[in-house]
Amino acid sequence: MLTLRGFMKAVAGERPPSSEKKGGILKGRWPPGRAVAALCFLSFVLGFLFTGRIGVLPSPSEKGRLQGAKASAAAAGRHGSKVSIELVESTPKDIMGEVSKTHQAIETLEKSISSLEMELAITRTNKMGRPIKKAFVVIGINTAFSSRRRRDSLRETWVPRGSKLRKLEQEKGIVLRFVIGRSSPAGGGALDRAIDAEEAETKDFLRLEHVEGYHELSTKTRVFFTTIISIWDADFYVKVDDDVHVNLGMLVSTLARYKAKPRTYIGCMKSGPVLSQKGVKYHEPEFWKFGEEGNKYFRHATGQIYAISKDLAAYISVNSPILHRYANEDVSLGSWLIGLDVNHIDERSMCCGTPPDCQWKQQEGNVCVASFDWSCSGICKSVDKMKDVHRACGEGDGAVWNAIL
Predict the structure, then answer these.
(1) In degrees, to the nearest 5, what angle opens at C-alpha 303 toward C-alphas 320 and 217?
(2) Which residue from 30, 41, 327, 347 could staple onto 35, CB 3.0 to 4.6 Å apart?
(3) What is the tens place of the pLDDT at every residue in 159-201?
(4) Omega of the bond prior to 355 within 30 degrees of 0, cis?
(5) Averaged in consecutive runs of 10 residues, what is the pLDDT profile of the chain (405 residues)?
């Protein structure tokens, strides 16, 4: 029997003696069967010693799993390059998706902060501690003591009266008020008493703590926004003159399109010349601030009608004491907003002409928000013409009730 020592000698080149002779020379030769058996046995022993364990044949179920794994590995090998490419290509998309989500989260946070700041501003302005009413839009119609007939012409056309006015406010969140101050700091004069009597009859006024005067329109605008934001929490605040025709349904539908946008300033944007010559209409005493003679104003909404969102109204209210006033109130408002991150919306439907202009546009399916004559900065002879404009360019009484806000 072959021993371990004999096997090692064979590997080292030693051969055990043999009794066979061939050509006078002794030859050593392994018996073939015994050598193979010994080699197999020794391999098994050495393998056992080095691994420390004996392999077990897999069960039929394990064989199935192994075959499946091999098939998957083979498939991955065949399509490995394609899978890698798909992973590489999808990674930038995933990154961009995460960036987009982060950007949206930041925007939401900014809106929340802006909303909190606005609510804080409203709380500060509400010095009387009275409850603030919710609304979609508050429309302030700028008027004067001498404009009773103008106000009546609006009440007979596009401004609802009595129960309809209250219903519009309660059901649609649309508030309309004629805006006027006092005749003197103390008030109580004949002009003030006339307004008090009219208010008792119509209940559609908002009285400001402000002394009326043509050259005080910038101050009146500032007081107007400060006052209404302390009474109504609305999405938008609108100022319109009492010689302008308005389609309420189109107005609120237009505003609703911009409801999701923060810091919104809507109107017909213009840039007129800065008039330095004394004695002319719209003379600007501080013309030198706008550069050389002949320069134009920055873009701003024309004063006949414009709208601002509540965050801008809150800004005006909070900063009212330090907001500079120019000669023209629309320029003043534009100057308060020009340095802010504001969305200027140039809405041309808010400055249509009177018939036939607004009539032609309506026939084409483009109902105007507001109509007036540029030459008169309002409807020329509005008391006499308001009904004609309403008849030709009005949207119909039911439009405002069907408007989607």
Answers:
(1) 50
(2) 30
(3) 999 999 999 999 999 999 999 999 998 888 999 999 999 999 9
(4) no
(5) 48 45 43 59 59 49 53 50 48 73 75 62 58 94 97 97 96 97 90 96 96 91 96 97 98 96 96 89 90 89 97 96 94 96 97 97 96 97 97 94 88
The span from the CA of 311 to the CA of 121, in Å, is 9
Query: 49 — phi, psi (to 5°)?
Result: -65, -40
Is it true that domain 123-402 has CATH number 3.90.550? yes
What does the domain layout of the chain look like in residue ranges?
123-402
Give kind and range of the element (H or E) at residue 236: strand 232-241
Task: Find the largest Cα–Cα distance for the chain.
Answer: 158
Residue with tokens 């021993």: 3
The whole-angstrom separation of Cα 366 and Cα 363 is: 7
* Residue 148: φ, ψ to 5°: -60, -40
Residues facing 207 on adjacent strands: 180
Cα 124 from Cα 229, distance rounded (Å): 10
Query: What is the C-alpha R_g of the chain?
Result: 45
Q: How far apart are CA 264 and CA 257, in angstroms?
A: 11
Structure tokens at 255: 């505003």
Instruction: Determine the Cα–Cα distance for residues 38 and 246; give it in Å rounded to an integer.
Output: 112
Cα 36 from Cα 254, distance rounded (Å):
99
